[in-house]
Amino acid sequence: MTGTLVLVRHGQSEWNLKNLFTGWRDPGLTDLGREEARRSGAELKALGLTFDIAFTTVLSRAQATLDIMLAELGQEGLETIRDKALNERDYGDLSGLNKDDARAKWGEEQVHVWRRSYDVQPPGGESLRDTGARVWPYYIREILPRVLRGQTVLVAAHGNSLRALVMALDGLSGEEIVKMEIATGVPIVYRLNADSTVKSKQTLGQAIPH
Which member of 43, 72, 88, 126 is catalytic? Predict the structure, then answer.
């Protein structure tokens, strides 16, 4: 028996558009972000997927993306579990800052290290490794057992929390995962073997140009 796991990064948020570090702050979706969510739902529907359960974060941009997708799928009211374990990486003192302003304050090289290293924390925040340290146990405890029972599971989350999951699923190193971009509103469909390894991986569609 194999199950299906679908990962989707939320649609474009207001702070993505403004080039701000977001982290655990809670801006809403833009019109483009809502359109990305609608298209994600439509693409999954075209694949013939129906979901047994959904997981998302406590942040509104991920929840709104999930709600729009479920409406497209005709699955409003699907059992949904919200947990901060799946939240975006906490950017600490960078949260709310324009990325160009952060570069002016701390220097381009330092900001690049904070954004693109695996294990270096920004001031008061989390590294990608720290994010994985809360995402991976939650996945193993709450999500993976359902997939291994043959369920079809949808996870709507964030760029870095999903990077942590993709790192584990694809067997990537810290150096490899920080180079991977996860586009907003583009579903990644995994089918897992009974031993939890990946049977197949499919990335749907193309990102809508921002």
Answer: 88
Distance of CA 157 to the CA centre of its chain: 4
Render pLDDT for 143-199 as a digit per residue (tens, 0 to 9): 999 999 999 999 999 999 999 999 999 999 999 999 999 999 999 999 999 999 999
Q: What does the radius of gyration of the chain's CA atoms come to, in whole angstroms?
A: 17
Which amino acid is present at 187? P
**How many C-alpha atoms does 139 have within 13 Å on its Cβ side?**
24
Q: Is residue 210 part of a domain?
A: no
- CA dihedral sign, ordered 91, 92, 98, 101: negative
10 is catalytic: yes
| 109: CATH | 3.40.50.1240
Q: Which domain holds residue 20?
A: 3-203
10, 36, 72, 158: the active-site residue: 10
Inside any domain, residue 175? yes
Exposed, middle or buried by CB within 10 Å (0-12, 13-18, 19+), for 74? exposed
Assess if residue 110 is contained within a domain: yes
Count of domains in the chain?
1
Q: What is the reported pLDDT for 21?
A: 94
CA–CA distance, 151 with 110 (Å, rounded to integer): 43
Question: What integer is the mean pLDDT of 32-55?
Answer: 97
- What's this model's pTM, rounded to 2 decimal places? 0.95
Residue 157 lies in a domain: yes
Active site residue 88: yes
pLDDT at 210 over 60: no
